C-alpha cells in the first residue's frame, strides 16, 4: 500500500538557517503530495501541495518539488524564523483519488534565536 | 464559520468503558476522516468516509467503529476502551471541487486517556 517516510527529528536550527526536511513516498501512479504544519496545541493546517510530477508547491517562504524519479517531496526554506517552530507532516493522496489521505510520522522543528 | 468541531476536547475513560467522539463540519464537505496521533508515530488513519452513509477502514481500524448518518457529522466509537487507545484524536474533512481533491481541514483534537 501507499506510505510516506519522513526524516526523524527533532531538527534544531538557529534563526536564519537553511531548512531541509526530507520526505519520500511509496505509491503507484501519480499521487498528490502535501506538507502540513502543526503548531503547539493546534490541529494541522495545509502548508503547500503539488499534484503532479515536477510541480513546485510554495507558501510562506517554504517550497517543495514533486520528484517522481526519486519519489521525494522534500521541504525547504531559505531562512527560518523562531515562529516556524512546529511539527511538519508530509502527506499523500493516492492517484486513484479514493479519498484515503495518509501521513508520515512528522518532524519537529525547533528554531532558536 | 466554525469549520471542523470536535467534541469533547478532553476525556478520561476507565478500561472497558465505551464512548463516542463527535466530529461536525459546516462546510458541506464530502470526505471526513478520523486520525490518531501518537508520539513518534505521526498521524495514523483510523477510518474515513467519502460521503454520507459510507465508511471505510484506514490503517489502524481495530477497536473502533464509525458512522456517517448525516453528511455534516462523523462519529468515532470505542466499544471497550483499552490503555493502548490513549491518544490524541483528530477529525478532518475535505471536498473535491470539479473532481480534484483539495486540502483537509482539521479539528482541534480530542485528548483521550484510558486508565
Q: Stretches of chain A where pLDDT falls below 50 for ≥5 residues?
A: none
Number of strands of chain A: 12
Termini of chain B, distance in Å?
Answer: 36 Å
- As a percent range, the share of strand residues of chain A is over 45%
What radius of gyration of chain A results from the CA coordinates?
14 Å
Unreliable parts of chain B: none
Could you give the order of the helices and strands of chain A?
A: EEEEEEEEEEEE
Name the chain pair with the biggest interface and residue counts per chain. A-B, 23 and 28 residues
Report the principal-axis shape of chain B.
globular
Number of strands of chain B: 11
Shape assignment of chain A: globular
Could you describe the largest sheet of chain B, including whether it forms a barrel?
A: 7 strands, mixed
Query: Gap between N and C termini of chain A, in Å?
Result: 41 Å
Order of helices and strands of chain B: EEEEEEEEEEE
- Looking at how many chains there are and whether they match, the oligomeric state comes to heterodimer
Average pLDDT of chain A works out at 93
Taking the sheet with the most strands of chain A, its summary is: 6 strands, mixed
Secondary-structure class of chain A: mainly beta
Helix content of chain B: under 10%
Description:
The complex is a heterodimer of chains A (113) and B (115). In chain A, 0% of the residues lie in helices and 50% in strands. Chain A has 113 residues and is an all-beta fold. In chain A, strands 2, 5, 6, 10, 11 and 12 form a six-stranded mixed β-sheet that branches. Chain A is globular and about 45 Å long. Chain B is globular. Chain B is mainly beta. Chain B has strands spanning 4-7, 10-13, 19-25, 31-38, 42-49, 56-57, 65-67, 73-78, 87-94, 105-106, 110-114. The N and C termini of chain B lie far apart (36 Å). Chain B is 0% helix and 50% strand. Chain B has no helices and eleven strands. The interface between A and B is medium-sized, with 23 and 28 residues.
Amino acid at each position: 500500500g501507499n506510505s510516506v517516510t519522513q526524516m526523524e527529528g527533532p531538527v534544531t536550527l538557529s534563526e536564519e538557517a537553511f531548512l531541509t526536511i526530507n520526505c519520500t513516498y511509496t505509491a503507484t501512479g501519480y499521487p498528490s503530495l502535501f506538507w502540513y504544519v502543526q503548531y503547539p496545541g493546534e490541529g494541522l493546517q495545509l502548508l503547500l501541495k503539488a499534484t503532479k510530477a515536477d510541480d513546485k508547491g510554495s507558501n510562506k517562504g517554504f517550497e517543495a518539488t514533486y520528484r517522481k524519479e526519486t519519489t521525494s517531496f522534500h521541504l525547504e526554506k531559505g531562512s527560518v524564523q523562531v515562529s516556524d517552530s512546529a511539527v511538519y507532516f508530509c502527506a499523500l493522496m493516492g492517484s486513484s483519488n479514493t479519498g484515503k489521505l495518509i501521513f508520515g510520522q512528522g518532524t519537529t522543528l525547533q528554531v532558536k534565536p | 464559520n466554525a469549520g471542523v468541531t470536535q467534541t469533547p476536547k478532553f476525556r478520561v475513560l476507565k478500561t472497558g468503558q465505551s464512548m463516542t467522539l463527535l466530529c461536525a463540519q459546516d462546510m458541506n464537505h464530502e470526505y471526513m476522516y478520523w486520525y490518531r496521533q501518537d508520539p513518534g508515530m505521526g498521524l495514523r488513519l483510523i477510518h474515513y468516509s467519502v460521503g454520507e452513509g459510507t465508511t471505510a477502514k484506514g490503517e489502524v481500524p481495530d477497536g473502533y467503529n464509525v458512522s456517517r448518518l448525516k453528511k455534516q457529522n462523523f462519529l468515532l466509537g470505542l466499544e471497550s476502551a483499552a490503555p493502548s487507545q490513549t491518544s490524541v484524536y483528530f477529525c478532518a474533512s475535505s471536498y473535491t471541487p470539479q473532481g480534484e481533491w483539495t486540502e483537509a481541514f482539521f479539528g482541534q483534537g480530542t485528548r483521550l486517556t484510558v486508565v
